[in-house]
């Protein structure tokens, strides 16, 4: 047994630090005395050494060593071609058998591509994998290629690679999702798995599962919800965490926040270590004003893993809804560093940039989110908000019309189009018609109710607005709706109930500044003497307030510096 065999056995046993030290020493010996090891042994040493470096997460160094191994393999290949001619076929057989146990050259190339992917050198990774002949590509090589092609926007090549994965492994469900996300028809995808479904018992659910994800990626949220619910109710798949997370996500896309939160909580109870989908859950909780719960959730996920984007996004949402936009920007950028395909991270960073007045940078992030998730309306809403913030009403209208035509006339698309119409005095009546259609489809859709209430407020139709808000609040409780009802009640001089509505709004979201301002304004109007005294007291303590503001600016500058340090701007 040679020393190379000992290195190989240690590598197989997972003794990576030991392999790294020994292989390093042996490679130095080989450099000083080239005759010490054969070309095959040098190749083995380089591969085992690179594997140990890869395990230590030194990916650039590992890629370099793997490339050195490939160069050594070329030397070995030349030597093996020369050997038979000089010694004869019979003498060469032991040599060939011995070389059959060498580390696979295909596997080495895959490891190089893996290093490049981690280093975000996607073009280099594609170049390495493209160099492997199609017939020699294993399923994992095709899967990596498919994901890289998709990320690079080479959809046709991505589809071909995903199909090759399915040809080799018909139950590769992530490859199925990849095909459906690239607009391949559900029926075509299902046909590629039909043989295995029919030959293996208890797989009849798979065709329904494919149909559900086809609806998801086709933007048909209603049918997706019904299909997943039918799967989830089956005894064999009841309480499956992946299905619950998918169901929660579709409820979120459909604008049903209540059911989305409910399903996320159910999934979290079943799997306390769940990370997937928790960024969306944290965002919803932050938007609903439950910032303390969001802070706890973020801390718990950091304890599980800080190498995933989700905990950074959750902490970023907490900062965003606490109006600490610079910190939210930093956390969103950190999440993108960890996972450049995180739609929620892109939306977080885009929203932070928009609120900091950096609209053009925000537009870039919202467009990338749209590319990754073309059926998520919040990506389009973010972009439209940017256009409206920069007075680009024409661009916003074009985008809203495109969504309406592409995804159909549902409550969400109608409300988005109405939102843009409200910005133009010439299209107020069209906005009203669109909102009425949206509310006819979904009377409980909060965004449509809010926009209709805003329109009624402009028209000073306060009684009609009060009736609309009361009807909606009869079935659900929402901070913004209670606050708006308070504003309408003030307009009709019903101060006592207005105060009650502001109180309810603040109980739902203690950080809702507008409800607090409305309540304080009413208190000052009711007791002008107290208000004067309070104002004088505030004036006397003005220096303290300025100190707080300075601290806030200081913190923003600190996080901005950190962005530059990490190269995130």
UniProtKB/TrEMBL annotation:
<dbReference type="Pfam" id="PF13432">
    <property type="entry name" value="TPR_16"/>
</dbReference>
<feature type="compositionally biased region" description="Basic and acidic residues">
    <location>
        <begin position="518"/>
        <end position="527"/>
    </location>
</feature>
<feature type="repeat" description="TPR">
    <location>
        <begin position="343"/>
        <end position="376"/>
    </location>
</feature>
<feature type="repeat" description="TPR">
    <location>
        <begin position="479"/>
        <end position="512"/>
    </location>
</feature>
<keyword id="KW-0802">TPR repeat</keyword>
<dbReference type="GO" id="GO:0051301">
    <property type="term" value="P:cell division"/>
</dbReference>
<dbReference type="InterPro" id="IPR019734">
    <property type="entry name" value="TPR_rpt"/>
</dbReference>
<dbReference type="GO" id="GO:0045842">
    <property type="term" value="P:positive regulation of mitotic metaphase/anaphase transition"/>
</dbReference>
<dbReference type="GO" id="GO:0016567">
    <property type="term" value="P:protein ubiquitination"/>
</dbReference>
<feature type="compositionally biased region" description="Acidic residues">
    <location>
        <begin position="533"/>
        <end position="553"/>
    </location>
</feature>
<dbReference type="InterPro" id="IPR011990">
    <property type="entry name" value="TPR-like_helical_dom_sf"/>
</dbReference>
<feature type="repeat" description="TPR">
    <location>
        <begin position="241"/>
        <end position="274"/>
    </location>
</feature>
<dbReference type="Pfam" id="PF13181">
    <property type="entry name" value="TPR_8"/>
</dbReference>
<dbReference type="GO" id="GO:0005680">
    <property type="term" value="C:anaphase-promoting complex"/>
</dbReference>
<protein>
    <recommendedName>
        <fullName>Anaphase promoting complex subunit 7</fullName>
    </recommendedName>
</protein>
<feature type="region of interest" description="Disordered">
    <location>
        <begin position="518"/>
        <end position="569"/>
    </location>
</feature>
């Amino acid at each position: 047994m040679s020393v190379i065999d000992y290195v190989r056995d240690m590598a197989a046993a997972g003794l990576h630090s030991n392999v790294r030290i020994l292989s390093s020493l042996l490679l130095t010996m080989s450099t000083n005395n080239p005759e010490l090891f054969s070309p095959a042994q040098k190749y083995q040493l380089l591969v085992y050494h690179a594997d140990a470096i890869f395990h230590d997460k030194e990916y650039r160094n590992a890629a370099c060593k793997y490339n050195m191994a490939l160069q050594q393999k070329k030397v070995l290949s030349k030597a093996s071609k020369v050997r038979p001619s000089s010694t004869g076929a019979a003498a060469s057989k032991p040599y060939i058998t011995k070389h059959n146990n060498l580390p696979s050259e295909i596997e080495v190339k895959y490891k190089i591509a893996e290093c490049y992917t981690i280093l975000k050198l996607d073009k280099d990774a594609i170049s390495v994998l493209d160099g492997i002949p199609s017939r020699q590509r294993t399923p994992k090589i095709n899967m990596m290629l498919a994901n890289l092609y998709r990320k690079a926007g080479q959809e046709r090549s991505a589809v071909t690679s995903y199909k090759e994965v399915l040809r080799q492994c018909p139950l590769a469900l992530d490859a199925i999702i990849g095909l459906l996300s690239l607009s391949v028809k559900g029926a075509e995808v299902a046909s590629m798995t039909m043989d295995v479904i029919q030959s293996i018992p208890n797989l009849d659910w798979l065709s329904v599962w494919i149909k559900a994800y086809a609806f998801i990626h086709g933007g048909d949220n209603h049918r997706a919800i019904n299909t997943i619910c039918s799967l989830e109710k089956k005894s064999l798949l009841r309480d499956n965490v992946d299905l619950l997370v998918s169901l929660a996500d579709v409820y979120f896309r459909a604008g049903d926040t209540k059911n989305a939160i409910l399903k996320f909580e159910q999934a979290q109870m079943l799997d306390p270590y769940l990370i997937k989908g928790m960024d969306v859950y944290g965002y919803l909780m932050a938007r609903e004003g439950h910032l303390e719960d969001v802070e706890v959730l973020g801390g718990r996920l950091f304890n599980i893993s800080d190498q995933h984007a989700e905990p950074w996004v959750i902490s970023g949402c907490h900062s965003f809804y606490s109006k600490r936009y610079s910190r939210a920007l930093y956390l969103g950028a950190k999440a993108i560093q960890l996972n450049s395909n995180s739609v929620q991270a892109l939306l977080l960073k885009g929203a932070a940039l928009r609120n900091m007045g950096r609209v053009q940078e925000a537009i870039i992030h919202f467009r990338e989110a749209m590319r990754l998730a073309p059926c998520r309306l919040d990506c389009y809403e973010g972009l439209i908000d940017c256009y409206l913030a920069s007075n680009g009403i024409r661009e916003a209208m074009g985008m809203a019309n495109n969504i309406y035509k592409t995804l159909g006339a549902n409550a969400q698309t109608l409300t988005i189009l109405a939102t843009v119409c409200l910005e133009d005095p010439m299209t107020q009546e069209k906005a009203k018609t669109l909102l009425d259609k949206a509310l006819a489809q979904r009377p409980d859709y909060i965004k449509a109710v809010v926009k209709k209430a805003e329109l009624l407020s402009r028209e000073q139709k306060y009684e009609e607005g009060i009736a609309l808000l009361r009807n909606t609040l009869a079935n659900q409780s929402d901070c913004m709706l209670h606050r708006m009802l308070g504003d309408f009640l003030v307009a009709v001089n019903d101060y006592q109930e207005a105060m009650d509505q502001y109180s309810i709004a603040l109980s739902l979201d203690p950080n809702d500044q507008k409800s607090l301002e409305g309540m304080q304004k009413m208190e000052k109007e009711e007791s002008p003497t107290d208000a004067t005294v309070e104002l004088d007291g505030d004036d006397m303590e003005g220096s303290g307030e300025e100190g707080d503001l300075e601290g806030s600016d200081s913190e923003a500058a600190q996080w901005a510096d950190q962005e530059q340090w990490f190269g995130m701007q």
